[in-house]
Design goal:
Blueprint (H helix, E strand, L loop, with lengths): L1 E5 L5 H4 L3 H4 L16 E7 L2 E10 L10 E8 L8 H15 L4 E6 L3 H7 L3 E11 L2 E11 L2
Parallel strand pairs: 4-5
Antiparallel strand pairs: 1-2, 2-3, 3-4, 5-7, 6-7
Length: about 150
């Protein structure tokens, strides 16, 4: 595995795997992709992009910390359970700290909840119906303090 900083447009090929992008419900470019403090990491195996994570300087109102980053990630299904997400998050921690961030948070659902628990993220409350840029679905708020 090789983790590299990538540009927002480099995430599009994997984002297209999601039905909401394929059927045009949600634009492939996210509103905060190009913000000054946003960054994107790609996980490459044999020079092929297999997993992505986008990090956004964004404060969640239910988390008590001044500087926070939200992560949105995606891994190709054939690469599930191979450490791709863990590698991306571990590579991101120094970059988040460099930008004064101390909290990483995300909304998670389905099988990704167990994967995120395994790499140290903790749930806050119970799953809730969330409406945002991606639509409405039941998701779990999760976070990790970075030091």
């Amino acid at each position: 595995m090789q983790i590299l900083i990538i540009q927002p447009h480099d995430t599009y090929q994997l984002r297209q795997l999601l039905p909401m992008h394929r059927n045009g419900q949600v634009p492939i470019a996210y509103p905060d992709d190009s913000d000054e403090k946003s960054f994107h990491l790609g996980n490459f195996v044999e020079k092929k992009l297999v997993s992505i994570a986008s990090f956004y300087f964004s404060k969640h109102p239910d988390i008590d910390a001044l500087y926070q980053y939200e992560v949105r990630g995606l891994t190709r299904p054939d690469m599930y359970r191979k450490g791709c997400s863990r590698a991306l998050l571990e590579a991101a921690y120094p970059l988040i700290l460099q930008n004064q961030g101390h909290i990483l948070w995300c909304y998670s659902s389905g099988d990704s909840i167990a994967a995120l628990l395994a790499i140290g993220l903790k749930p806050i409350g119970s799953p809730q119906e969330i409406s945002d840029f991606f639509g409405t679905s039941v998701r779990q708020l999760m976070y990790k303090r970075i030091q």
